[in-house]
Write a structure and sequence with these properties.
The protein has about 200 residues and is α/β, with parallel strands linked by helices. It folds into two domains: about 90 residues; about 110 residues, Trna Endonuclease, Chain: A, domain 1. The protein contains six helices and five strands. Strands 1-2-3-4-5 form a five-stranded mixed sheet, sandwiched between helices.
Amino acid sequence: MQSLKEELLELLEKDKEFRHAVAGLIGYKEILERITSLEERIVSLEEGQQRLEERIVSLEEGQQRLEKGQQELKRLVNVIAHRFGVISEDAFREGMKTVIEEEFGVAEVGKFIIEDEEGLVYGHPATVEVDVLVKDGKHILIEVKSRISKGDLAELYRAGELYTKKIGIKPSLVIIGGLVDEGAKELAEKLGIKVRPIIE
């Protein structure tokens, strides 16, 4: 072993090419070690970034739940306030724009205003006004009420009949409201009206 060491030392001292080759091997080993260390650091950074992204996603989901909760609270406050006469029907309808947007993907709907000479809707000649939405070729009549009664359903149903008679297209019927009177849902099913309550 000692003899081998002496030979190697002599080669390093006298053989320039051998000396360069050994130096190159030593440098290559150091480079490999540094690359390995750098790769480990990169993996650690990627893991840290993944944990950070997961926290960001969690925060975004929490914010969405909070915003939804705030909207639900606002609707409930509107319902209660209207029930005790604090806000008007128009103010309640304005507050329901968010519900309409969730239901149909749009917040604004048009107005269907037409003279009902035969008294089909109210039992006597009158001007009938109802919200109408035309989306993807489908006509939808929408009524917003703070409280949905059987009378509201019957009125919307007759408005749908008037619309069919005047426009020549049978519309879908949707009523959105804060509270639903007892028996109203059963009548809505019979009349083919979709009920979207804000609270049960």
